[in-house]
Write a structure and sequence with these properties.
48% helix, 15% strand, 89 residues, alpha+beta
Length: 89
């Protein structure tokens, strides 16, 4: 069970690294199974970016942290949206 938990959390960290372009983000895991987002500073120490959290809360926090990727919209979505606004008038 623990490997599944850490895999889900590490996948969230990988997504954050791709979104932000900063490969320095990492996580720590306490002996109690709580996760914390960390980022190394110039002094070589790691600074915590959040308090230790349970896995689901941690994944939610990391997914909301940093820049967000814009939602992809297809041509069909745009046309459908225009059709809906036309019908409301």
């Amino acid at each position: 069970m623990r490997s599944t938990r850490s895999t889900k959390a590490s996948a969230a960290i990988d997504r954050l690294k791709r979104r932000s372009g900063n490969t320095q983000y990492s996580m720590t895991m306490t002996s109690g199974g709580m996760f914390c987002l960390v980022l190394p500073n110039e002094a070589g120490d790691s600074s915590r970016l959040c308090e230790p959290m349970m896995m689901d809360d941690f994944v939610t926090f990391v997914n909301a942290y940093g820049p967000q990727t814009p939602k992809r919209v297809s041509k069909l979505d745009v046309a459908f949206s225009k059709q809906l606004t036309k019908n409301k008038l």
